[in-house]
Design a protein that fits this description.
The chain has helices at 19-31, 48-53, 69-85, 96-105, 124-130, 141-150, 176-183, 201-214, 229-238, 254-259, 276-282, 295-298, 313-325, 327-344, 347-359, and strands at 7-11, 37-42, 57-60, 90-93, 111-116, 135-138, 158-160, 187-192, 218-223, 245-249, 263-266, 287-290, 305-308. By secondary structure, it is an alpha/beta fold. The protein has two domains: 3-164 and 346-359, Rossmann fold (3-Layer(aba) Sandwich); 176-344, Glycogen Phosphorylase B (Rossmann fold, 3-Layer(aba) Sandwich), CATH 3.40.50.2000. The strands form two sheets. A seven-stranded parallel sheet has the order 3-2-1-4-5-6-7, sandwiched between helices.
Length: 364
């Protein structure tokens, strides 16, 4: 395929703060200047300004996950109009419903690509229809297996390209609240992500209650915002843990934040291929993560981190204790973590993989 001739449309649910949106921004950066045109459509969000800075046109459409029949008709009409107006040759979707609309709206001759960012066990018929004529990029092996085993998508339709992050090359900008805690000799244990059910932050709080019995020097840092914010604050208060928890809210400098932590916990209930452990590894920090989906493809337990059972606060606490009590173990894991990042999850590897993938697409 001659990339210079292609007009690409990315369909994403929002341009908000999540990992999916980060992947879209990475793809825009990788393909900018290599294709004729890049267009993004979404329901909008904070990252629209980044697209504008990159010179990429953004169309605001209704949320592709909206199931209201009138909204669905409008979304279909909007996407069909954008494809025609912008002379789109490749539609690259980043949500199952985005792929559904691409299947309906893209005329014959337009290549359809979709990223699968998570594992699912629902909407089997809809998913099979949405991906029927689509080349799929799974962000991890577990996502690929979910597509081929549960949804019965043919194996030759699915490729795997791991998520990645850029290396942190800036100077660490100290965060005063963390700096004060460090100077007082406290161990900083972070948990980063949207404050939603998926991230299992309540189990992190429960684990903290156990850890502080033997380690009063431990401090627990939650980074992120979301619908469970008030609920999590109340949980901390009910356990009388206000003095050991720090809520930093949303941050756009995650690698900078992680650089100032001692290690990270990922307490998720499900994941595709999460960015948090990759971000931690990129700055040489180890991670305790739940053994769900793609997290198991990143954390090599006992080598660069630990895997524990999902929804098991006791196991999380046990591994936190190990990393507090045996700093030499933590140091060895940190060295392995950054090597693993460089080998498997670097931005350069992602860039080469996506360019190779696009160049190998067959024009219809």
């Amino acid at each position: 395929m001659v990339l210079e001739k292609q007009n690409i449309l990315f369909i994403v649910r929002t341009m908000g703060l999540g990992g999916t949106e980060n992947v879209v921004l990475q793809l825009c950066e990788i393909l900018a200047g290599r294709v004729n045109k890049i267009v993004v459509c979404s329901s909008g969000g904070v990252h629209e300004s980044k697209l504008q800075t990159m010179g990429i046109k953004h169309y605001t459409i209704q949320d592709v996950a909206n199931k209201n029949p009138v909204s669905m008709l409008r979304i279909y009409s909007s996407i069909k109009s954008i494809i025609k107006r912008e002379k789109i040759t490749i539609v690259h979707s980043h949500h199952r419903m985005a792929a559904f609309y691409a299947e309906l709206a893209a005329p014959k001759g337009v290549i359809k690509v979709a990223n699968a960012h998570n594992t699912f066990q629902d909407k089997k018929k809809l998913t099979q229809f949405a991906y029927h004529n689509t080349e799929i990029i799974a962000v991890g092996e577990m996502v690929r297996e979910n597509l081929t085993d549960f949804f019965k998508i043919p194996e030759n339709q699915v490729s795997v390209i791991h998520n990645a992050v850029k290396p942190f090359e800036g100077v660490v900008q100290k965060i005063s609240t963390l700096d004060i805690e460090k100077k007082e000799g406290h161990i900083l244990i972070g948990n980063i992500g949207r404050l939603s059910e998926q991230k299992g932050m309540n189990y992190f709080i429960d684990a903290a209650e156990i850890v502080t019995r033997n380690h009063p020097e431990a401090r627990f840092v939650i980074v992120g915002d979301g619908e469970l914010k008030d609920q999590l604050h109340e949980r901390v208060k009910s356990k009388h843990l206000q003095d050991v928890f720090l809520f930093l809210g949303y941050r756009n400098d995650i690698q900078n934040v992680i650089s100032q932590l001692d290690f990270v916990v990922l307490s998720s209930l499900w994941e595709g291929l999460p960015l948090t452990p990759i971000e931690a590894y990129s700055v040489g920090k180890t991670v305790i993560g739940t053994a769900v989906d793609g997290t198991q493809e990143i954390i090599r337990t006992g080598i660069d981190g630990y895997l524990v059972e999902s929804k098991n606060a006791t196991q999380i606490a046990e591994k936190i204790d190990v990393l507090i009590e045996y700093p030499e173990v933590r140091k060895k894991m940190e060295a392995q973590a950054i090597r693993w990042y460089q080998a498997e999850f670097s931005f350069e590897k992602l860039k080469k993989s996506y360019l190779h993938y696009y160049e190998g697409l067959r024009e219809n």
